[in-house]
């Protein structure tokens, strides 16, 4: 849900829409809910929602069909995936390495675990 | 009609007691605005002045260029709800709603009755025998159904139970989207309703100390956590609202946007940067306790 304790609400909205695009809940060329519908659903000010939409429009994730509404751009998913991949090491892997270092977790064990997980997925 | 409220050096005193001084600023447009501040900070006086119930002691208050005091035309555009019991005491709820409908040119009676049903308000009961929560529900209904271009609600939640409050917030948002207008809400329940505010106006010790969009306020306040010397180094030239020490760890609430350079420094000093909830920002901004900033 949207939280008042997690920084600006508009960026939470933008993040949520990106999540939905990655997970496939929102498809490319699909219409997204209107700012008012979003506002109603999450019980937030519609101007805040509009700001989140604006950010996604600037990033080329959403586009406006005049008189109809906002749609997911044709290559939105690739864009979001590229962004997530770019952040993957900084956001996920680096903190993990830091934690491993702190608690004296050998790199070998981490690699073994990753390989084991990869193997489990393949079979 | 889109509303602009302007304050120019506005002051209001009651005898020797100064309730408001040096109030300056403007609120404008069809927005939901939160009027926040501690008890006795001057919120109610400010609302009563906007409604034109009080004459300013000095300075100016203009609504679309006009002074509201003894201005009958403007009075019909401004709905200030509180104290239904005082206004409609001996009438039944049904009659009170009928009376209210005569006061407001944009009144939607069907909507008022719909709300009365949603709030389970007994239409045949006398207003003076309503519980505090029921009276607040009636206030909320009058405020919403008035559809006044400028609607002022002063702590319109007293005694309401949580489900009624959430019903009120839901209706407020829906009706605002249906009929955009300026809605000013004074409240202490920031955690509950803060997400509905496009802007917040903060009143402290008789003056407006801050007027900002809610999103901007959330972006320009953060808490930095780390070892005391590192936090102190980091916050050296920054505006610190509040600090807390636990052992050799320290947290400091900083007011001001986090720059890229500061982000880099925080990383360098191994400092943790976290957002601050709106409620806490307001508490820190209006706290009397002077906390040394380093």
Explain this structure.
Chain A: It comes from Paenibacillus phyllosphaerae. The complex is a heterodimer of chains A (123) and B (294). By secondary structure, chain A is mostly helical. Chain A has helices spanning 9-23, 35-42, 46-58, 76-102, 107-122, and strands spanning 62-65, 69-72. Chain A has two domains: 9-75, Arc Repressor Mutant, subunit A (Orthogonal Bundle); 77-122. Chain A is built from five helices and two strands; from the N terminus they run αααββαα. In chain A, strands 1-2 form a two-stranded antiparallel sheet. The relative contact order of chain A is 0.11. Chain B has two domains: 4-213, Rossmann fold, CATH 3.40.50; 220-285, Alpha-Beta Plaits. Chain B has 294 residues and is α/β, with parallel strands linked by helices. The radius of gyration of chain B is 22 Å and the shape is globular. In chain B, helix 4 (93-103) packs parallel to helix 6 (132-146) and helix 5 (109-118) runs antiparallel to helix 6. Chain B starts with a strand and ends in a 9-residue tail after the last helix. In chain B, a hairpin with a 2-residue loop joins strand 8 and strand 9 (207-213). The interface between A and B is medium-sized, with 19 and 21 residues.
């Amino acid at each position: 849900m949207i939280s008042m304790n997690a920084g600006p609400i508009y960026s939470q909205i933008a993040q949520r829409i990106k999540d939905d695009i990655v997970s496939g809940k929102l498809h490319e060329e699909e219409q997204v809910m209107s700012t008012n519908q979003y506002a109603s659903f999450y019980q937030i000010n519609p101007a805040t929602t509009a700001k989140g939409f604006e950010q996604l429009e600037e990033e080329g994730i959403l586009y406006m069909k005049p008189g109809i509404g906002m749609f997911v751009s044709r290559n939105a998913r690739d864009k979001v995936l590229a962004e997530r991949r770019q952040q993957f090491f900084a956001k996920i892997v680096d903190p993990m390495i830091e934690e491993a270092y702190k608690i004296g977790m050998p790199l070998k064990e981490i690699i073994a675990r990753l390989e084991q997980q990869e193997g489990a997925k393949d079979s | 009609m889109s509303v602009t409220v302007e304050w120019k050096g506005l002051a209001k005193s009651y005898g020797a007691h100064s309730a408001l001084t040096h109030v300056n600023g403007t609120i404008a447009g069809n927005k939901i605005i939160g009027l926040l501040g501690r008890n006795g900070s001057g919120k109610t006086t400010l609302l009563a002045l906007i409604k034109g119930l009080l004459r300013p002691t000095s300075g100016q208050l203009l609504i679309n260029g006009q002074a509201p005091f003894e201005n009958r035309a403007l009075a019909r555009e401004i709905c200030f709800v509180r104290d239904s019991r005082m206004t409609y005491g001996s009438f039944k709820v049904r009659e009170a709603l009928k009376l209210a409908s005569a006061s407001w040119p944009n009144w939607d009676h069907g909507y008022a009755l719909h709300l009365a049903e949603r709030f389970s308000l007994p239409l045949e009961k006398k207003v003076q025998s309503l519980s505090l929560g029921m009276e607040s529900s009636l206030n909320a209904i009058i405020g919403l159904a008035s559809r006044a271009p400028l609607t002022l609600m002063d702590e319109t939640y007293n005694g309401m139970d949580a489900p009624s409050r959430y019903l009120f917030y839901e209706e407020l948002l829906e009706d605002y989207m249906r009929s955009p207008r300026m809605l000013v809400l004074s409240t202490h329940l920031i955690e509950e309703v803060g997400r509905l505010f496009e802007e917040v106006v903060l009143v402290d010790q008789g003056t407006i100390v801050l007027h900002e969009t809610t999103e901007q306020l959330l972006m320009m306040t953060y808490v930095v956590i780390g070892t005391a010397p590192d936090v102190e180094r980091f916050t050296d030239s920054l505006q610190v609202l509040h600090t807390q020490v636990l052992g050799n760890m320290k947290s400091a609430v900083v007011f001001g946007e986090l720059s890229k350079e500061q982000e880099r420094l925080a990383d360098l000093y191994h400092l943790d940067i976290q957002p601050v909830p709106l409620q806490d920002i307001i508490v820190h901004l209006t706290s009397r306790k002077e906390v040394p900033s380093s």
